[in-house]
């Protein structure tokens, strides 16, 4: 099917809000290039389960494209229109399954050496939208907090090396009640600005008690049943001869919350679809809690654009060497706190990078603390860069210095 | 960007090793016209799972590659800018390295390369027997890499392929134990999935006969090793001792555990590869069949994504196709190869096969790359 042949009934199987949005913009969709419109539909088909910031962004794209004259739109999307597609791609049902189309388009672009042209086209497109309709900074400067190193008694690994040039390295932090202080700070921000999905707490272990309803909580341990269900489904599919890793991936991407034991009720659907996506689209998130936290934070920042993000990395399970696997039977669930500290140190760096991609980055703050220890690093407009402080300070005071 | 990568590597190497530039040494160099030593051999070591400069050649990564820096680079010609313009999947990219053509097949498909491999050129042109060229690879997906689907070459003309992990699993299963199937789950890009093996890789009993090594000895030794790459190097060593192949290709894969997102495990993989590369070089020097007549090539198949590309997730994957993920390096060492020399000009991944052809005396007719004059 060509985009020009799109009709309202083609979107019958879409969820209600997505269907309405597609039908409201069908005249625009009909005019978009064949290589582009499935990518837009891939976002649109999930509209019902998107965060407010994502919806706003999709609306922004549609507004921008709709504001262009036919000639401007053709010019704008010409790099996409120039991509050479295969007859197999053209035969795919990209309206009903834009996600699968997107996967196969990606493989085709790599195989035909067009991936770089596609990257450039996509980057330019986003830049032009940002220039035409700039995103607004949040009402409250963003604050990212990463708590790393749980379970590590002694450490010789030099922490925060990648972040030190950006802020102040504190070496005399008083750790008493540190986690409570940080959680209280998140709760205070959430209470003052209770936007939906505006404040997140992501824990790599078991979530601490949180009484503030404006905080979105995700934890690795709470999702244990869903992780087990997912791994069981994957193993079952492999045993049944699913036909290759790509077929397996397609099967996984299509899983819905209720298939992993999570509810799909209206009040939980958005978060549970997010949690399923973290487990199904994130590599390693089903197995290692450290990448679970980092990937969940990356996706939360990218998609929900929260004002506050507290991530707490917990020890992941140990990766057993081959000789140990061979010499003993069933795997034991030993933990690797020291390895997890390295993972988390890098994860905190990535959290900061991902936060800096969002509007208002120049006003944002970021704090990473070695849990129950005296080391922390703080980045904020009010703090100098690339410096070290030997002053004794508690986390409350440290947060105060960041504002 | 690739130029910047090259500069950072070059500057660091100069500072660390005192290496000189090839441009100062090239021209009518005295080594160039020397006759090839009799019975010349080549060993290619690739990393299936690139390592980024941040974790290797940049100052903060130096601690991870002490053997490359202090033992190997001082003896090597080092290419700072090897560009991979193909598909960044490990099997298809390694196949491209082996054919000298950017292969376009599905990375996850159990298919042979479309174009003739270096092993086929080598055997046909030089009339070498099947035992003279081998591939040792950890991943089941590599089982078709030994010979292409090319009509002019193809079946019966390629290299023997040994998949040590698969052999180990087979050996253990034959003893009544089936709980080692996890050994086959070695493709970190698609965890939990092990492709069906439909190629012609060597079986455990065949290997036992070839290497004069009992299945019990093989499994017993495997139990003392910490990783699949160590097992691959062990098998390579036995191959060198028993068959002394002239063209041996070893693909290391441990560092690709980066796909699991555990940074510390990725670093461990780099450190192990660093140690194993030095071990292979020492093996070459200690084996009479190899010492003094073997050229070793070490190169990652490609890099990994940069920290800052929004399309990726840093070290974890190689999905963006950005400059960091496409740009890697290569070191070459052995008789006639200049030591402690840096080559800054960009070269191509597909230049490897033509270089091997010029070095060993075969003609890779369908390869797209060009011989690297700096090491010939």
Notes on the protein architecture:
The complex is a heterodimer of chains A (403) and B (376). Chain A has two domains: 3-132, no CATH class; 143-223 and 284-401, Alkaline Phosphatase, subunit A (3-Layer(aba) Sandwich), CATH 3.40.720.10. Chain A is 46% helix and 11% strand. Chain A contains 17 helices and twelve strands. The longest helix of chain A is centred in the last third of the chain and has 20 residues, at 337-356. Chain B has one domain: 3-Layer(aba) Sandwich (Alkaline Phosphatase, subunit A), CATH 3.40.720.10. Chain B is 32% helix and 13% strand. Chain B has helices spanning 2-17, 66-72, 90-99, 118-126, 164-174, 204-211, 215-222, 228-242, 263-286, 323-326, 352-360; strands spanning 20-21, 41-47, 77-83, 133-136, 160-162, 247-252, 294-300, 327-333, 341-343, 347-348. In chain B, strands 1, 2, 3, 4, 5, 6, 7, 8, 9 and 10 form a ten-stranded mixed beta sheet that branches. Chain B is globular, with a radius of gyration of 19 Å. Chain B starts with a helix and ends in a 16-residue tail after the last helix. At the A-B interface, helix 8, helix 9, helix 11, helix 12 and helix 14 of A face helix 8 and helix 9 of B.
User: Please, what is the average pLDDT of chain A?
Assistant: 93
Query: Given the helix and strand composition of chain A, which structural class is it?
Result: alpha/beta
Number of domains of chain B: 1
* Number of E-state strands of chain B: 10
Classify the fold: give the CATH topology of the largest domain in chain A. Answer: Alkaline Phosphatase, subunit A
- The CATH level-2 architecture of the largest domain in chain A is identified as 3-Layer(aba) Sandwich
Radius of gyration of chain A, whole Å: 23 Å
The CATH topology of chain B, please?
Alkaline Phosphatase, subunit A
Proportion in helices of chain B:
25-40%
- Give the CATH H-level superfamily of chain B: Alkaline Phosphatase, subunit A
Number of helices of chain B: 11
The CATH class of the largest domain in chain A is identified as Alpha Beta
Strand content of chain A: 5-15%
Sheet with most strands: strand arrangement of chain A: 5-4-6-1-9-10-2-11
Q: CATH superfamily of the largest domain in chain A, please?
A: Alkaline Phosphatase, subunit A
């Amino acid at each position: 099917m060509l985009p020009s042949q799109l009709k309202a009934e083609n979107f019958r199987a879409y969820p209600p809000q997505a269907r309405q949005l597609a039908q409201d913009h069908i005249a625009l969709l009909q005019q978009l290039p064949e290589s582009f419109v499935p990518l837009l539909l891939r976002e649109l088909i999930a509209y019902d389960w998107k965060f407010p910031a994502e919806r706003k962004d999709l609306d922004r794209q549609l507004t921008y494209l709709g504001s262009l004259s036919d000639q401007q739109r053709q010019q704008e999307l010409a790099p996409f229109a120039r991509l050479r597609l295969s007859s197999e791609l053209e035969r795919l049902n990209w309206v009903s399954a834009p996600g699968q189309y997107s996967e196969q388009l990606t493989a085709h672009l790599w195989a035909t050496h067009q991936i770089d042209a596609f990257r450039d086209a996509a980057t330019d497109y986003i830049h032009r939208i940002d220039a035409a309709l700039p995103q607004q900074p949040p009402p409250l400067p963003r604050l990212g907090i990463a708590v790393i190193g749980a379970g590590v008694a002694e450490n010789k690994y030099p922490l925060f090396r990648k972040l030190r040039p950006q802020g102040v390295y504190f070496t005399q932090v008083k750790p008493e009640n540190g986690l409570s202080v940080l959680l209280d700070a998140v709760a205070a921000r959430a209470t003052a600005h209770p936007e939906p999905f505006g404040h997140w707490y992501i824990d790599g272990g078991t979530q601490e008690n949180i009484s503030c309803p404006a905080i979105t909580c995700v934890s690795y341990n709470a999702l244990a049943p869903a992780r087990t269900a997912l791994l069981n489904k994957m193993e079952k599919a492999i045993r049944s001869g699913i036909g290759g890793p790509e077929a397996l991936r397609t099967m996984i991407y299509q899983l819905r919350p209720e298939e992993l034991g999570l509810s799909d009720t209206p009040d939980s659907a958005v978060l549970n679809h997010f949690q399923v996506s973290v487990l199904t689209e994130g590599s390693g998130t089903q197995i290692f809690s450290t990448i679970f936290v980092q990937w969940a934070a990356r996706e939360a920042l990218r998609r929900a654009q929260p004002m506050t993000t507290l991530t707490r990395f917990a020890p992941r399970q140990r990766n057993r060497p081959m000789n140990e696997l061979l010499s003993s039977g069933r795997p034991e669930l030993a933990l690797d706190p020291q390895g997890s500290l390295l993972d988390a140190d890098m994860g905190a760096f990535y959290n900061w990078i991902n936060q800096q991609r969002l509007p208002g980055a120049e006003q944002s703050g970021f704090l990473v603390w070695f849990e129950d220890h005296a080391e922390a690093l703080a980045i904020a407009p009010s703090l100098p860069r690339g410096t070290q402080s030997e002053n004794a300070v508690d986390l409350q005071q440290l947060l105060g210095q960041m504002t | 960007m690739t130029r910047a990568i090259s500069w950072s590597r070059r500057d660091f190497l100069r500072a660390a090793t005192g290496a000189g530039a090839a441009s100062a040494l090239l021209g009518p160099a005295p080594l160039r016209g020397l006759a090839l030593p009799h019975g010349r051999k080549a060993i290619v070591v690739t990393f299936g799972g690139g390592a980024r400069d941040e974790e290797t050649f940049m100052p903060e990564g130096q601690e991870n590659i002490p053997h490359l820096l202090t033992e190997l680079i001082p003896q090597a010609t080092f290419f700072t800018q090897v560009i991979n313009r193909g598909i960044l999947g490990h099997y298809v990219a390694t196949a491209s390295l082996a054919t000298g053509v950017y292969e376009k097949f599905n990375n996850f498909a159990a298919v042979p390369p479309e174009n003739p491999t270096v092993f086929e050129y080598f055997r046909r042109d030089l009339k070498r027997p099947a035992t003279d060229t081998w591939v040792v690879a950890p991943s089941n997906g590599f089982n078709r890499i030994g010979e292409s689907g090319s009509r002019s070459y193809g079946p019966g003309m390629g290299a023997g392929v040994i998949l040590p992990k698969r052999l180990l699993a087979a050996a253990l299963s034959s003893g009544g134990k089936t709980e080692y199937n996890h050994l086959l789950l070695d493709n970190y890009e698609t965890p939990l999935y092990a492709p069906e093996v439909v190629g012609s890789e060597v079986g455990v009993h065949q290997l036992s006969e070839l290497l004069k090594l009992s299945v019990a000895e093989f499994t017993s030794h495997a139990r003392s090793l910490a990783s699949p790459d160590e097992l691959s190097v062990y098998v390579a060593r036995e191959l060198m001792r028993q068959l002394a192949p002239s063209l041996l290709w070893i693909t290391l894969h441990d560092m690709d555990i980066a796909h699991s997102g555990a940074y510390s495990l990725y670093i461990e993989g780099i450190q192990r590869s660093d140690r194993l590369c030095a071990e292979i070089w020492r093996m070459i020097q200690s084996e009479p069949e190899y010492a003094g007549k073997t050229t070793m090539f070490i190169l990652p198949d490609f890099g990994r994504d940069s920290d800052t590309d929004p399309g990726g997730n840093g070290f974890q994957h190689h999905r963006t196709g950005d400059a960091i993920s496409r740009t890697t390096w290569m070191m070459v060492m052995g008789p006639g190869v200049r030591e402690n020399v840096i080559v800054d000009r960009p070269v191509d991944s597909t230049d490897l096969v033509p270089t091997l052809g010029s070095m060993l005396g075969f003609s890779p007719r369908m390869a797209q790359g060009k011989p690297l004059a700096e090491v010939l």
